[in-house]
């Protein structure tokens, strides 16, 4: 472990933190920064210019352009900077997503390198580089500037482990097989009991594995094997075997869930949303406890028009109270989606539809009794933290794998669509089961148990707090070792 006396006199780390540019990555990375700063670390947080532009445009930021101004007033040592991702602000990163991903390999790291070089000479000089795992340049930039390298994974440890062991999946014919991928259960990934191929992430089920997404995964997970530490937004109690198996290879620390507390201060000191948020509290205050279904299919991935319309008519059939977060770009990044004619007249005061909201504020409201979700990891963690059971409708990427955890392993949710195509009758039946039936009460019990598990992990002597302290101690050890070299 090293000389404790030396560690005590090692200055607190100065971490430079880079999130990935998507909402599901920006939010937990900001919470990570606040958590580390609250333990005494100096933080320089770096958003890309386009993320900064979207956050400041979406909400009035006190303190001008500095989204961390309020956090600093509260005593946290956080400095804020922005960097170009290599594309102009007006470039549509979603319409041209493949081109944008390619820029992540060459253009963006050059801008990062330039910024890091200038901060190595700052006071105090940066000592630690913390970057979203899906950045294939972490260890290279850290090594060049003699920094501790830390890879931050914003999804569950199960998804990390599957990506980490792509070579095993490939060797066994479950991924990238010329003859078509095997369909029998996968039981050879260290720490993973067994998983069906249908529950793998969507990009691992594809036959064409030469897309920019695949290249990003390959390169990022080659790089991750060279970093000093891995951080994961999960908790030990939920994924103990998987975390232990990864820890046998590299030091990994789980100190999630990196979500705001549903009680007390629900609004963060730091704005995180890339879209303007609507306040739903007045409408919710008029509804009985546990009577409202919260519906959201996430911030990024496109839905199918037919599915959206079946969900709309299913909500009508169910006669449930609902809040539906329906983004204008729900089915296309090029044109806004419009609901079926007459739909909004039929719902009367049963439903409220808004383009975006402060999610944890809504689902922690006593009126909310369930969530129809795409199973993005932040949404799953927030639902668990609020004790809200889920109807699961995964779209892409890691969401199907997250669904397996929620429905099959933890019994905190039901599947919306057991077989394609989705129908309005099935939507209404599943809503009824969750919101009114005995099955819904059982799911709520399991979800409330899960909430207690998360709360215990975050308590002063809980697993997440211990893991965070251990991480900071071990970073200090590394800093002191390097300063003596």
From TrEMBL:
SUPFAM superfamilies: UDP-Glycosyltransferase/glycogen phosphorylase. The lineage of its organism: Eukaryota, Viridiplantae, Streptophyta, Embryophyta, Tracheophyta. Pfam families: UDPGT. GO terms for molecular function: quercetin 3-O-glucosyltransferase activity; quercetin 7-O-glucosyltransferase activity. It comes from Trema orientale (Charcoal tree). This is UDP-glucuronosyl/UDP-glucosyltransferase. Belongs to the UDP-glycosyltransferase family. Keywords: Glycosyltransferase, Transferase.
